[in-house]
Write a structure and sequence with these properties.
- This protein is of the alpha+beta class.
- It folds into two domains: about 5-95, RNA polymerase II/Efflux pump adaptor protein, barrel-sandwich hybrid domain (OB fold (Dihydrolipoamide Acetyltransferase, E2P)); about 135-188, E3-binding domain (Dihydrolipoamide Transferase).
- Helices cover about 15% and strands about 20% of the residues.
- It is built from three helices and eight strands; from the N terminus they run E-E-E-E-E-E-E-E-H-H-H.
- The radius of gyration is 24 Å and the shape is elongated.
């Protein structure tokens, strides 16, 4: 039976990740514990070792696409082994936990007053959350360095992109791979 490789949780704070690059191609032999791909998180880019040995039958996650944890990224099995990609993807979609709806809070609190014709006291409805502001260019840290992932710095250097002018979309305004890709697409 083919094994599904999922987006791993590489740190305690990781909630999503992106395959930065594949170190193996479809059809190549993969050793259990051997290098499979590079995963970019909000803080670092790390080499990911394959949890299974066999042949890389299918690459599901394309480089640069941010995915939630436990999303299928590849299928490894025996050479020529068949698998149902639709079933893998639908099982993954069903298995993902959905955020629980917040418990309903009473909108009004009515208190009985000793007077015969008292008016009930109604609590005001909760306010909607303020919209999230658009990210500004990444702030420099205490040392004057712009907060960015190692992969983003390499990509910026290779593409002649000035990190100081790039808005970071990662945690804390950190510049990540997709920010550099967007800057290159904008022309700078």
């Amino acid at each position: 039976m083919a094994n599904v490789v999922e987006m791993p949780k590489l740190s305690d704070t990781m909630e999503e990740g992106a395959v930065a690059s594949w170190l193996k191609k479809e059809g190549e032999t993969v050793d259990e514990g051997g290098p499979l791909c590079e995963i970019e998180t909000d803080k670092a880019t790390m080499e990911y070792q394959s949890p299974y040995g066999g042949v890389l039958l299918k690459i599901i996650a394309q480089p640069g696409k941010t995915l939630a944890l436990n999303t299928p990224i590849a299928v490894i099995g025996k050479k020529g082994e068949s698998f149902d990609l639709d079933a893998i993807m639908s099982t993954a979609a069903v298995a993902k936990p959905t955020p629980a709806a917040p418990a309903a809070k009473p909108a009004a609190v009515v208190t009985a007053a000793p007077k015969a014709m008292s008016t009930p006291v109604v609590a005001p409805p909760p306010r909607a959350a303020a919209p999230v502001p658009v990210a500004a260019p990444a702030p420099a840290s205490a040392g004057g360095r712009v907060k960015s992932s190692p992969l983003a710095r390499r990509m910026a250097a290779a593409s002649n992109v000035n990190l100081a002018g790039v808005a970071g979309s990662g945690p804390g305004g950190r510049i990540i791979m997709r920010d550099i890709e967007a800057a290159v697409a904008r022309g700078g």
